[in-house]
Design a protein that fits this description.
The chain has two domains: about 220 residues, Aspartate Aminotransferase, domain 2, CATH 3.40.640.10; about 120 residues, Aspartate Aminotransferase, domain 1, CATH 3.90.1150.10. The chain has a seven-stranded mixed β-sheet with strand order 1-7-6-5-4-2-3. A five-stranded mixed β-sheet has the order 8-9-12-11-10, with helices on one face. About 40% of the residues lie in helices and about 15% in strands. By secondary structure, the protein is α/β, with parallel strands linked by helices. The longest helix has 19 residues. Helix 4 runs parallel beside helix 11 and helix 12 runs parallel beside helix 15. It contains 15 helices and twelve strands. Pyridoxal-5'-phosphate (PLP) binds next to helix 5 and helix 6. The site of pyridoxal-5'-phosphate has 15 residues, from helix 5 and helix 6.
Length: about 400
């Protein structure tokens, strides 16, 4: 590589790590989108609106008639989430409920659904347990093989990129083109990247789906989800599913997610910068058998990550010698919470083999948080350096 390319790459990396691209650059617009609208003396912070009933005399009319159908807090949050992707959002009480709403409103008997065999396990469980028995054909394929596999004849491909915890990427534009060629739909589960790290709708996906439990709420204190799309019929379908079947979020959780969004850009920028700094700081450490992060030049899909994503995500995967070394490392590190899930302010880690993921016993997934970068790198390196028993 020439010096010039090195500099370009370094500058691009720094910019992306800081999240200064795309949606992140418009975050000021996002924060101030309502600043000029309210009447004088109106509260500028959103309200929590716990109600099951609305005043409804005579012939039912108007936007709010019953608590399962609408809540002004949902509408406000949906406008916020939609703004981040230039689409319409529908909120749900969990990511799993959002995924279920998509599957239930799109799929009919005889339809073929494609999922990754190394994608989010909960999504496969929903599809295999509740949809496969209804005459829907559920197909699975490893992320690495999707580029080589035909995508025609599908009604729906619901895919994640990067995959978790393998951190293999899919080219969203290419998948969209191949699924669309025979009239299918592509939905991207964008939980890992958020709209600030990746814009699936701009890349050709028909919808995106999120567990807002992770980065979007961001404080490890609420379970939530949403769907976003620019397709009117698709949004009407998931809205009708929610209205009829009642998978509705509580008003307090709705407010919490709205509040979490206020700092999303700040958190994502720090988390992504931390993940990249850690990857660079730990790379080559003698205790590691492998280290995986899309921001490293040696990641096999680094070029695709640079082109498709804004930043390289906040996940980092390490492989230590065995289960005991991995457990010892997690236990020894003061800055790693031992828990599952990801996307919170506190860095956390877990050995993924404990859930049966097809990874080595010593494989540790680190969900990088918002700690000060230098201190975090120092503490993780100290824990890796710690001698064994
Ligand atoms: C967590 C997660 C889900 C499920 O979301 P919940 O909020 O736990 O219901 C779906 N997809 C991905 C990628 C996730 O990480």
């Amino acid at each position: 590589m020439s010096n010039e390319n090195d500099e370009d790459d370094a500058a691009g990396e720094a910019r992306r790590a800081a999240g200064a691209d795309g949606a992140a650059a418009r975050y000021g617009d996002y924060l101030h989108r309502l600043s000029k609208v309210p009447a004088p003396n109106a509260a500028l912070a959103p309200a929590i609106l716990p109600t099951s009933v609305y005043a409804l005399p005579g012939t039912p009319a108007g936007p709010h008639q019953y608590g399962r159908w609408t809540n002004p807090g949902w509408t406000e949050l949906e406008e916020s989430l939609g703004f981040l992707e230039g689409g319409s959002a529908v909120v749900f009480p969990s990511g799993a409920a959002a995924v279920t709403a998509l599957l239930a409103s799109i799929l009919r008997p005889g339809d073929r659904l494609l999922l990754q065999s190394d994608g989010y396990m909960g999504t496969r469980t929903i599809a295999q347990r509740y949809f496969a028995g209804q005459g829907i054909v559920v197909e699975t394929c490893p992320t690495r093989d999707i580029a080589l596999r035909p995508l025609d004849g599908l009604r729906l491909a619901l895919l994640e990129t990067p995959s978790n915890p393998g951190l293999d990427l899919l080219d969203i534009r290419d998948c969209a083109r191949r699924v669309h060629a025979s009239g299918g739909l592509l939905v991207i589960d964008n939980t890992l990247m958020t709209p600030l790290g990746q814009q699936p709708l701009d890349l050709g996906a028909d919808a995106s789906v999120y567990s807002d439990t992770k980065l979007i709420n961001g404080h490890s204190d609420a379970v939530f989800g949403h769907v976003c799309s620019r397709r009117v019929e698709l949004i009407a379908g998931v809205l009708e599913w929610r209205r009829v079947c009642g998978a509705i979020p509580g008003p307090f959780e709705t407010w919490m997610v709205q509040r979490g969004l206020e700092t999303l850009e700040l958190r994502v920028a720090r988390m992504q910068a931390n993940a990249l700094a850690l990857a660079q700081a730990l790379r080559g450490h003698p205790a590691l058998r492998a280290l995986c992060h899309p921001g490293l030049a040696e990641h096999p899909q680094h070029a695709l990550a640079t082109a498709q994503m804004m930043g390289y995500g906040s996940m980092l995967c390490l492989t230590l010698a065995d289960q005991a070394s991995a457990d010892r490392f997690i236990g020894a590190c003061r800055y790693l919470r031992a828990c599952t899930s990801f996307g919170g302010v506190h860095s956390s880690a877990e050995r993924r083999a404990r859930w049966g993921d097809p990874v080595a016993d010593g494989f540790v997934r680190i969900a990088v948080g918002c700690e000060p970068t230098e201190a975090l790198c120092r503490e993780l390196r100290r824990a890796l350096d710690a001698p064994g028993p």
